[in-house]
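Reply to dn_fold:

You asked what the input looked like. This is it:
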Amino acid sequence: MYGLNDLLLEVLRATFLAALLFYLVVGARHSRFARLPGARFIVVGFSLLLLATLLDITDEIPGLERYVVIGATQTEAYIETIFGYLAAFATLFVGFIKIIPSIAKIEEVSQELRESEEKFRSVFETIPDVISITRLSDGLVADLNPAIQELSGLPREHFIGRSSIDLKTWANPADRERMVQSVLKGGSIRNMEAQLNTGGGQLRDCLVSARLMHLQGEPHILAVFKDITERNEVLRALRDSEARFRLIFELSPDPLIIAKANGGGIVDVNRAFVAETGISVEEAQGKNSVELNIWADPEQRSIFLDLLRQNGAVINLEAGFRMKDGAIRTGLVSAQLVELGATPCILIDIRDITQQKQAEQALLEMDRMKSEFISTAAHELRTPLATMLGYTELIRSPDEFGGFNEEQREDFLAEIYLKGETLSRIIDEMLDISRIESGHPIALDRQPHEPAALLSKVLRRFEMQSPKHLFQSEFPGKQPEVIPCDLHRITQVLENLLSNAVKYSPQGGSITVHGETVGTDYVISIADQGIGMAPEQLERVFDKFYRADSSNTAISGLGLGMSIARQIIEAHSGRIWMKSEPGVGTTVTFSMPLVP
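and this is what came back:
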């Protein structure tokens, strides 16, 4: 019985050792144990131990000694068996001596691994961006950090264990496929833009970064989703704002300039700037106002910069600006310090007020001329009126002034008549200009009149009134029998022109009236040998209220005659012009169509 029990124990031990060896050789050959130093010694030791056990078993089974020869005698067999065990234990001892430090190292590495996993888990749980681990093959969600709840409003348990494909997490499934292919091709992907469906029907813009990883021997994708929805909304709003600014910038009727505040030059100009200055965008960019020579007065630029430094803005500073062609225009400059892309810049608006200033100047000039006109009109009316009153008083009281003969009386009456005509002409001119100013055209009564006879009649009147001048008439070529005109108005024009010729020829000289047919027009000119006019006077001679000399010693007149004469001629569908040279004389010419 004792021998049978020993045999059973030996068999059990052999079986256990055989199973252990099988596991160590077959099951653990790819495990971390197989890579430990001393592992082979342990396998060899257990193998020797199994062999010794098997030898013990043969000792217990009668008749096997014929097949297993161990030692010559039972004592030798026993000794060899003992030494088999000792060899096995020695080999195991060496194996364990070698493997124990490695086990300690494994424990240390395991501890570091646990700490690393703890760190990873802490980071994984703490990062505000959504982090997911999904199985590559089917998109099954293995893990998610808590940020998913903030993004979607759903707990992460709602997603874990389910496929992102079935959940339709990706708004566009092609984006997931693009991410997967990029990860498979390059091992990772960074900042791929995509939209995620958070589950409540709301789409979120995300930047996706991902890389390939293995869990339990199976490929997974670790992905980080950074929510950029708010950022994109801000960017869209910024782009919209920039588009609106660009639209306003380009469509503004005022020239606009964006320049660097440090004097680094112009960044951009709008179309109005190019149109008004003639300076192209390419010519302006990178240059400052000094290089472009825009400021007509450099001192005004200094004032502008001082105001900008002091106040951060400039409002309606009036200054002169030089165009590309050299012309000077007046503008109101407004500016504001702004930041564009973190670069300090100046936004400058220049409103062209050249025409406004010219209009203001013209209005001031008109006011001045009207004031002078009122003063002159009063003087011009008073002088003939005083003469008429004086001669009338002489005629009414001849005895009081010593008496006078009939010839003197006729002279007095002639002078009274002449001054009355002067008053009538002045009043007519004032009435005419009043009608013109109110927008009423000059009414014409056109009738056929012989031009040469008309000119000769007016000329004879002036020959009688101004004997110190030599009046001449010239009618070359074939004269038309009649021309259609308003006799009163054309006579008014001729009288005004002849009167000016007489007044501006105080030393006498020749006054020539010339009339001839030129094409389809009848052209009349009146030339004198008087004082003439300078070019600047000639430019304004047809302006209302203009008098070349407005001093107290100036030649009499209201400054309306030439303006009214032009209106009359233009009403006849003709035109009037003048040539003059100081000290040589003046020639006034006007034309009228032969056929109305």
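The first strand starts at residue 130 and ends at 135.
Hope that clears it up.
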